[in-house]
């Protein structure tokens, strides 16, 4: 009996195929000892993406669509250092937009603002500068003193300003962000964000307030200090070296502390596209910039952008039983499409479909749509909205219209 079992085990080991997992690779062991590896080789794109940047955290975003083209640990919370100031700049431009702040308003530096360490433009207590100068100090030279002075001017105190920063971050969907100060100088563990959230706030700043790029693309400038000690010139040099070394780079903000290491949110424009390249926790400033440039190269080589050629196009739609017989339709949001497949966007076609309308029609109602196709495949659509409200016609309106028609007919006969 024992000899039979031994013979059977020997036969099984030698002649029956066995399937074993080896590091998630399925290999079949044949009686000849030969192995067959069924794992597919990585594509060239996958290999390129894998070693694209050295830094541990990064995001590449196309600005108009918000599409992520590349990411590496995009949701890991990190200290942002001075790229915190992107949110500070958003709130400054928010205040300008709502009319509570003007570019030529004068801002006074407090003792507290003057006391900021780190990057500064050496504002003196009681010194006044206009808002535009303060913006330059923040975005070009990363002035912590200028940032705090602006925070106090807008909100009364840095603490109140930081509350507004956190509220604004939430409104943008920055789920993994919390600010403790307005300039990123703090080493508090409660001051954090992620590469993805930095891309979100960078997108908000450059798309809603593109004027910021006029300032962030300045390489060198000067400001004039006017204090009790007299008047002196102070030079500003941009901390973002990419605006000189990478063609098309127009901003945006750098940052570095011992805790955050080296960070940058860079913006480059080429071929009708704006890309946002975010790098966090780079080991040194050279890697910070080389990683951002590598992501730019990857994005511009891989992508092409189509945007509705007539975004202000309007449509006239007939309205039945309304106080007015027509209503104008317009795009609620211009269509854009980001292609990463290499197809020619010259082949995009569109078809517009308008509804038959009966009053009442409210302003903002969807009254049609334009559908876009690439090589016969639908790639998206844009809604057409009513530009005004058209009320339903009452009896008196109908009577008036009939009367006007009658008078016009009689006048034509004469």
From TrEMBL:
Residues 306-392 form the Peptidase S11 D-Ala-D-Ala carboxypeptidase A C-terminal domain. Its EC number is 3.4.16.4. Pathway: Cell wall biogenesis; peptidoglycan biosynthesis. InterPro entries: Beta-lactam/transpept-like, Peniciliin-bd_prot_C_sf, Peptidase_S11, Peptidase_S11_C, Peptidase_S11_C_sf, Peptidase_S11_N. Gene3D superfamilies: D-Ala-D-Ala carboxypeptidase, C-terminal domain, DD-peptidase/beta-lactamase superfamily. SUPFAM superfamilies: beta-lactamase/transpeptidase-like, Penicillin-binding protein associated domain. Substrate binds at residue 253. It comes from the Bacteria. GO terms for molecular function: serine-type D-Ala-D-Ala carboxypeptidase activity. Keywords: Carboxypeptidase, Cell shape, Cell wall biogenesis/degradation, Hydrolase, Peptidoglycan synthesis, Protease, Signal. The active site is at residues 82, 85, 142. It catalyses: Preferential cleavage: (Ac)2-L-Lys-D-Ala-|-D-Ala. Also transpeptidation of peptidyl-alanyl moieties that are N-acyl substituents of D-alanine. GO terms for biological process: cell wall organization; peptidoglycan biosynthetic process; proteolysis; regulation of cell shape. PANTHER family: D-ALANYL-D-ALANINE CARBOXYPEPTIDASE, TRAFFICKING PROTEIN PARTICLE COMPLEX SUBUNIT 12. Removes C-terminal D-alanyl residues from sugar-peptide cell wall precursors. Belongs to the peptidase S11 family. This is serine-type D-Ala-D-Ala carboxypeptidase.
């Amino acid at each position: 009996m024992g000899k039979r079992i031994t013979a059977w085990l020997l036969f099984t080991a030698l002649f029956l195929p066995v399937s074993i997992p080896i590091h998630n690779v399925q290999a079949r062991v044949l009686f000849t000892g030969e192995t067959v590896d069924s794992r597919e080789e990585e594509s060239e794109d996958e290999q390129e993406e894998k070693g694209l940047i050295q830094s541990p955290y990064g995001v590449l975003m196309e600005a108009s669509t918000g599409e992520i083209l590349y990411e590496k640990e995009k949701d890991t919370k990190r200290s942002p250092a001075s790229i915190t100031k992107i949110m500070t700049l958003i709130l400054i431009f928010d205040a300008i937009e709502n009319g509570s702040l003007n570019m030529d308003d004068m801002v006074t530096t407090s003792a507290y603002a003057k006391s900021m360490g780190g990057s500064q433009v050496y504002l003196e207590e009681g010194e006044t500068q206009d808002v535009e100068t303060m913006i330059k100090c923040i975005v070009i030279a990363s002035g912590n003193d200028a940032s705090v002075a602006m925070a106090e001017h807008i909100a009364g105190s840095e603490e109140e300003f930081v509350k507004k920063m956190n509220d604004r971050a939430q409104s943008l969907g920055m789920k993994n962000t919390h600010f403790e100060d307005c300039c990123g100088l703090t080493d508090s563990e409660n001051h954090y964000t992620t590469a993805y959230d930095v891309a979100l706030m960078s997108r908000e700043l450059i798309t809603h307030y593109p004027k910021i790029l006029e300032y962030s693309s300045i390489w060198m400038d000067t400001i004039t200090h006017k204090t009790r000690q007299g008047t002196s010139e102070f030079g500003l040099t941009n901390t973002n070296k990419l605006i000189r070394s990478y063609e098309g780079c127009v901003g945006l903000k750098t940052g570095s502390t011992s805790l955050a290491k080296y960070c940058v949110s860079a913006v480059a424009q080429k071929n009708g596209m704006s890309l946002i390249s975010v790098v966090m926790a780079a080991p040194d400033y050279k890697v910070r910039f080389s990683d951002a440039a590598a992501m730019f190269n990857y994005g511009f080589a891989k992508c092409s952008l189509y945007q509705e050629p007539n975004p202000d196009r309007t449509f006239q739609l007939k309205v039945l039983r309304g106080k007015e017989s027509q209503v104008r339709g317009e795009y609620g949001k211009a269509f854009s499409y980001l292609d990463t497949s290499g197809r020619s966007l010259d082949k995009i076609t569109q078809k517009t479909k308008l509804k038959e309308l009966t009053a009442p029609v409210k302003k903002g109602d969807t009254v049609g749509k334009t559908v876009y196709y690439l090589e016969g495949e639908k790639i998206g659509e844009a809604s057409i909205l009513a530009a005004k409200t058209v009320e339903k016609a009452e009896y008196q309106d109908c009577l008036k219209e009939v009367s006007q028609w009658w008078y016009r007919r009689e006048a034509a006969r004469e």
